[in-house]
Write a structure and sequence with these properties.
Blueprint: H1 9-15, H2 19-30, H3 37-43, E1 52-57, H4 63-76, E2 81-87, H5 95-105, E3 113-119, H6 124-140, E4 145-151, H7 155-160, E5 166-171, H8 176-189, E6 192-195, H9 203-216, E7 227-229, H10 238-255, H11 257-288, H12 290-300, H13 306-318
Parallel strand pairs: 1-4, 1-5, 2-3, 2-4, 5-6, 6-7
Helix pairs in contact: 1-2, 2-6, 8-9, 11-12
The structure holds guanosine-5'-triphosphate (GTP) and magnesium ion (MG).
Length: 321
Amino acid sequence: MTGSPRLPPVARAIVDGDRRALARTISAVENGDPRVAGIVRSLYPRTGRTPVIGLTGPLGVGKSSLLSVLIGQLRARGKTVGVVAVDPSSPYSGGSVLGDRIRLERKANDDGVFFRSMASRGEAGGIAASTREVARLLDAAGFDVVFVETVGSGQVDVAIRGVATTSVVILVPHLGDEVQTLKAGLFEIADVFCVNKADLPGADLAAKDLSELVALGAARDGWAPPIVPTSTTTPSGIEELWTAIDAHEQFLDSTGQRTQHERARLSAEIAERVKDRMGREVAERLTRDPELRRLLDRVVARTLDPATAAEELFRTHYAPK
Ligand SMILES: Nc1nc2c(ncn2[C@@H]2O[C@H](COP(=O)(O)OP(=O)(O)OP(=O)(O)O)[C@@H](O)[C@H]2O)c(=O)[nH]1
Ligand SMILES: [Mg+2]
C-alpha cells in the first residue's frame, strides 16, 4: 500500500517519516501557499483512519500539561504521536506559546513525537480550516495518534468537533460559573470530560456536579460521556483518561458511528469551503458588477433590506435553474 508511484516527492518524504518535509509543508499550508495543494491532495487517500483526539477547555486548565503526560504514556507503549496546538496568545506576547514549548521540549529529540503550535490570530474559521489540514497531514505522516489542543471559547470549541474523532473537554475544580456558561455547548462537544487539577480541593464536588449535568443530558447516540478526574502534578488518572478516550474510539468502530461522523464532518467541510468561496466571489462582484452595485445602492439607500437583497442575489445568480 506504501509504494504509490504517483505520490509527489515531498508527499513521499512525508509518508516515509521525513519530519522536515512535514514541517515545511505544514508551514506552507498555514501560509495558504497554493503550491502545496497538490501535495495535500495526493495525501488525502492516506488519511481518515487515525484517532484524532481534541483537547479543549478554558485557559489554563492544564491542557498542555495533560498532553505532555499522555504523550509520555503513549510513547512508553511504543505509539507515535502528532500534536497540533492552537495557541490563543498573541504572537507578540508569546508567553503561552513558550510555555507549551518548554513543557513539551524534553520530547524534542524523539522522532516519535511531532509538535506544532499555531497562533490563533483570533478568527475561528481560519483556525478550524488550517487545524484540520495540519491534523490531516499528521494523519498521512503515519502517527498512531493525533492530538489537537484548542483553547475553549465558544466557536473554537465547536470547531474541534469538525476535526476530532474524540473530543475531551477539560475543566478544573471551582469552575462553577464557567461550567454554567459552557453548559449548553459542553454536551455537544464532549465525548469525555476530564476534571484536571484533582489534587486541588473541590475536585470531587466538581466531578459530582458535572455528573449531575451529564445525567440530565440524554446520552448522545448511545454514548454517555465519562468523567475522569486527573492530576498532572501527582500524576494520577492519566491512564484512566486514555482508557476513556480509547473506549470512545472503540465505540465509534463497534457502532459504525465512525463512518457516520466522518461523513457529517466532510459534508460540513465541503459546505464551508463552498460558502467561503462564494462569499468571496459575491463580495467582489458587489463592488465590480454594475447590476449588483445597483442592488447594493438600494440597500445603502434603505429601499431594500440586506436579507431580501441576499435572497434576490442568490435566486437570480446562484440558485440552480
Ligand atoms: N495543581 C495543579 N496544577 C496543574 C495541573 N495541571 C496543570 N497545572 C498548572 O496549571 C497551569 C496551566 O497549565 P497548562 O498545561 O499550560 O494549561 P493549558 O490549559 O494548556 O493552558 P492554555 O493553553 O494557556 O489555555 C500551569 O501552571 C500548570 O503547572 C494539575 O493537575 N494540578
Ligand atoms: Mg496550553
